[in-house]
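hey m, so remember when u said the tokens were messed up on ur end? i reran from scratch. heres the input so u can diff it against urs
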Amino acid sequence: MPDDGQTINPFETAKRQVDIVAELLKLDNGTREILKHPKRELTVNFPVRMDDGQYRVFTGYRVQYNMARGPTKGGIRYHPQVSLDEVRALAAWMTWKCAVVNLPYGGAKGGIICDPKHMSKGELERLTRRYASEIAPIIGPEMDIPAPDVYTDSQTMAWIMDTFSMMRGYSVPGVVTGKPISLGGSEGRGEATGRGCAYVIREAAPHAGVKVHGGTVAVQGYGNAGMVAACILHDEQQAKIIAVSDSKGGIHNSDGLNPHAVEEHKKKTGSVVGFPGAKSISNEEVLETKADILIPAALENQITKRNADKIQARIVAEAANGPTLPEADKTLYEKGTTVLPDILANAGGVTVSYFEWAQDIQGYFWDLEDVNRRLEKVMTQSYAQVHKTAESYKVHNRTAAYVLAIQRVVDAIKMRGIYP
């Protein structure tokens, strides 16, 4: 992972982003302090029986950042490097993400310090159910609605939904989103993050002087979001995917890669590395590939002051959360790179999560065409509002997205007032 020779605290990054916007909006100190503090944090330490009969104690977190606009929303990640500050930062970004696409939600995030790659399905189920029971007092359809994130999926959400429902004594499908269709999940949820990212790229391309049709694309992080975005740009926009990577390394072919074939190769081998007809490159080389569009879809802190000037793409569309540091934003903006910030570019996932929640509450479900049509409308309108704000304030898109989002949250805080 690129760094600047020091450990980067993602929550300090998140707070710096708030400060930048607070200056532009001329916010008072009290409001700034509210925006830089999570409303509620829960840390839980809980035992899980492993397959060998031994018990291990795991640590998990759930942070609810801001509830001014509605119940909180945000994923749960399983990763060895999960930390409270990382979860705080992700909860803050979820707050702004929900606001920038104008969903009636605040932001939250959760995580467990674990290595799911070295755990059996049974161990993961017991881990998930125990964590769900520990955070159950502060989640629910009207309070906080978890969703999948890094190394969690629809099965994880099914276990959480079932555990919560058992504690209530009746089924509560709206407690989580990203569920299997059979348990009240929404059509289109699985590909929503990547699809939303592709929509925003399409809308931004004319303003960036880029043609998506026939243009070249590099994707760092060939998980769900990166893979879906690549496939949609390839299938619907005839873009040429020339480089992709995952945690084990990257591949490149200037003549283009078939993203579906790469997906099949990864399913069979566990990595994109070794794909026939492609040369091996590093994750950092994927970022620096000469391409029209770069999609960072891995983890945070990938584009830094050290490598920002080596980024050759005209559009950087952040399918991951927090891949670009503020110092790198400045460099990219000055060289004319259009950055589509995470709180806009990857908001398709939370948008269709909102659709799923709404469908669960009303007990009436939409077909895939309806879901995608509504998603396209939300993403198209949101990009237009961010672009308009960027031009109005003469700032780059990230700051514009934060201006739009933070102003909406501030308006809600001020209209509600401070209780008591």
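this time it looks ok to me. The two ends are 46 Å apart (CA to CA). if urs says something different then somethings off w ur setup not the seq
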